[in-house]
Amino acid sequence: MIFTDFSLGDKTLRLSVYADNIIRVRVSKSFELSLFERYRVFKEPEETGEKTANGVRTGRLGVSFDGIGIVITNDGIRARTNAEKSRRMDFSRDIAADSKWYNEKCNRFRPDIKRILGDEAKRTINTVDFEKDPKCLTMAALPGEKFYGLGTGNCEDLILNGRTYLQRVIYATCEVPIPFLMSENIGVLCASTFWHGIDVCSRKENEIGWFLPDGEIDFYIFGGNSLKENLRLFTRLTGRSALLPKWAYGLTFIDQYKADQFEVMRNAADFRKKKLPCDMISLEPGWMENEYDFSTKKKWNTEKFYIADWMRHEEPGKQMFTAALKRYGFKLALWLCCHHDFTADEENRAGNPTDFGIEPWYLHLRQFVNDGAAAFKMDPCQVVDGANEQRVYANGRGEPEMHNLMQTLYQKQMYYGISEHTKKRPMHHFCGGYTGTAQYGATTTGDSGGGHKTMVWVLNCGLTGLSNITCDMDIFSPQTLHYCFFTAWCQLNSWSGFRQPWWAGDDNEECFTFYDRNRYALLPYIYSAAIESHLTGVPVVRAMPLEYTDKEVENTVMQFMFGSELLVGAFTDRVWLPRNEVWIDFWSGKEYEGGQWVEGTTPENRGGPLFIKGGAILPTQPERQFTSCADEPLLNLKIYPCKSSEYTLWEDDGLSLSEAKAKTVFTVETDKKTVKIKLGPRTGSFEGMCIRMYNLSVRCDCPKEVVIGGKPQSFTCDGGFVKFAAHDGDEVIIKL
User: How does 208-241 read in b/e, with b if 16+ C-beta sit within 10 Å?
Assistant: First the structure.
């Protein structure tokens, strides 16, 4: 690794190149591995970059030391000659006044912490004593620069400027804080596991401040020139979003708390009889012999879910209710809670095989996986809420340092436990997280309902590299159904109520049915976006500024892009259509020029606006009741010619740990006389890949002729679409 050191009294400042366009800034006495490195949460560094006279540089990013602080340049200029393209980060200043100011700011968090922790709240928040051993850093912001990120550390807007944020995991309030900031010009990650504060241009308009009560100064700086590029660099370091099994992107139904095996099966049968697609049924804590069992001694509640030893020896355990669920095409998930020291397991993985006297976490879960559980719903519970400041973990570190990181290690343990046991892609979801959490599974917004607040969380998590996030669906609200079915994965949580669709009233059932079937039709498109997220860091649900620079949407939390082709408005009837695009109203088929506000297009008993980008190519599948991970021999393509456009469909076997993938690039060119379409061919391969056919529906006037490979083809015209069949690799000409 390329690095250079500078003396800072009894400590050393180290500037190092971590990877292309990523530079690390660290102040330490010993430069031991950080906990993120020790537990291999961060990805391996690269051998790249170069030293300069007083710093390091890589790509367009340079960081130098001038004896007071560091200077960051990201304009490609090797010498600091352009003040507008450089910024300073200071870490040696009198911060007494800053500390007092920040502690006052923290008062606004006291009610939330007290609600969660009770009488411990005051003692907990007072652990932030900046005047004892303060670490305050500031970084200049460029004039007019807007910052995004922080995960659920921000639950009000997209733009972070003008507020102070506490980076501490708090259940149902701040469950996935990730201390990553980015603008169009720069990205910055504070790599501290201690809970800390960040001020984004609140105290001073063009200054960001970090308030670290303890630990080292350890920052990563990213030199991207767009939000997408900085997100890509950030997830290069902390891990791209996990790719879930394909079936996980369908629908999950969480059965009510007191359900037994017979009620579970009745609900499963009703989903199929009603032709409501669903892939997974999840059980709440009532499945355990001791409800809310935090130990590693969990057992089935055999009065509700009878599984005897003799059943397990029947091949393939056909007498179990889990086998009956499987026959209906359902996966089973189990609710978990824990109070476990995951650092003991991680120390073993890190090469320190010490006997801590602690049972490895996953060992007691193997039996439930063998019994048919395919996924787990993980509630952090005491790990998040029971913050005992006196607790010392197996690694010798205390609660203030480990509280946030434990959320990531919890998920990491589950990921490797399941994948090593089953040799398949894991599915588990949780409602707590921190830096690095995205690479290990899925998450939810916890017990916060399915309203607009959760949508802000989803958008901000996407802006922080976490794609697989959803919320609890409110079945009685068309607005929430509309929003929730356009999340990366979706769940309907019954818990203690009657939230089965067929008990929600005729209008609600009809609305649910429409959105449920529509999602399953779009599953190839959704799954392709999930693979793209896994490869690039770009989330499935994309805040508008990730895709468009229109000022009208730089801070909007009322609409988003779902993948690259669909614009979704939620909890509003008014959306901005970005400039330089043509947009087609999904509901009416009406075409709009971009660069305008549009409202009032949502029909009765639907939940919000939905627009298709002109030029879009949407892969869909025939009707399905559950997801088969087998390669689909027939896909439908719905094409909206407008201008030259391109779409890449990503596919794999949907289940294995293999990174083998196939991609198909579809292109469309159009003018007043013709529409030209090229279908691939598919490149790459994966196990089970078959020969592909397509049914095309192209939005255009009824043509004179459809030609494939120089030969006229039969076609039909229906509802403004021309329809015909084609093969993988075909080139199509539609003559208008």
Answer: bbbbbbbbbbbbbbbbbbebbbbbbbbbbbbbbb
Instruction: Kindly provide the residue ranges of all beta strands, DSSP E only, lying in 625-673, ordered along the sequence.
Output: 634-639, 645-651, 662-670
What pLDDT score was predicted for residue 687? 95
* Contacts (Cβ under 8 Å, ≥6 apart) of 304: 259, 260, 261, 286, 287
Which residues share a beta bridge with 17?
23
Q: Is the pLDDT of residue 245 over 90?
A: yes
Number of Cβ within 10 Å of residue 711's Cβ equals: 7
DSSP E strand stretches across 616-661: 617-620, 634-639, 645-651
pTM assigned to the model:
0.94
Distance CA 307, CA 319 (A): 9
Q: Which is more confident, 131 or 664?
A: 664
Over 527-572, what HEC string results? HHHHHHHHHHCCCCEEEHHHHCCCHHHCCCCCEEEECCCEEEECCC
Q: CB–CB of 254/491 below 8 Å? A: yes
The Cα–Cα gap between 565 and 669 comes to 17
Helix (H) or strand (E) holding 312: helix 309-312
Share of the chain above pLDDT 70, in %: 91
- Contact in structure between 563 and 612 (CB atoms under 8 Å): no
CB–CB of 519/251 below 8 Å?
yes
**Cβ count within 10 A of residue 247:** 25
* From 7-11, 576-580, 591-595, the region with the lowest mean pLDDT: 7-11
d(CA 384, CA 403): 7
Q: What would the mean pLDDT of 326-334 be, rounded to a whole number?
A: 96
Q: Is the pLDDT of residue 281 over 50?
A: yes
CB of 474 closer than 8 Å to CB of 448: no
E-strand ranges in 397-556 read 428-430, 442-444, 469-470, 490-493, 541-543
Of all residues in the chain, the percent with pLDDT exceeding 90 is 71
Return the amino acid letter for 601.
T
Instruction: Provide the 10 A C-beta neighbour count for residue 340.
Output: 21
Question: What is the spatial distance between Cα 223 and Cα 233, in angstroms, rounded to a whole number?
Answer: 8
Extract the tokens encoding 16. 């190092």
DSSP lists the bridge partners of residue 442 as 429
Q: What are the tokens at 9?
A: 């009294």
8 A C-beta contact, residue 184 and residue 227:
yes
Please answer whether residues 12 and 44 qualify as being in contact, where contact means their C-beta atoms are separated by less than 8 angstroms. Answer: no
* C-beta neighbour count of 98 within 10 angstroms: 18
Using CA atoms, how far apart are residues 380 and 383, in angstroms rounded to an integer? 5
Residue 153's pLDDT is 83
Distance, CA of 463 to CA of 152 (rounded, Å) = 10
Say how far apart CA 86 and CA 71 lie, in whole Å. Answer: 7
Coil, helix or strand at residue 235: helix
**Cα–Cα distance measured from residue 480 to residue 473, given in angstroms and rounded to the nearest whole number:** 6
Given a contact cutoff of 8 angstroms between Cβ atoms, the answer to whether 149 and 460 are in contact is: yes
Through-space distance between the first and last CA atoms of the chain, rounded to whole angstroms? 60
CA-based R_g, the chain, Å? 27
Q: Which domains does the chain have, with CATH numbers?
A: 3-238 (2.60.40.1760), 248-531 (3.20.20.80), 538-609 (2.60.40.1180), 630-735 (2.60.40.1180)
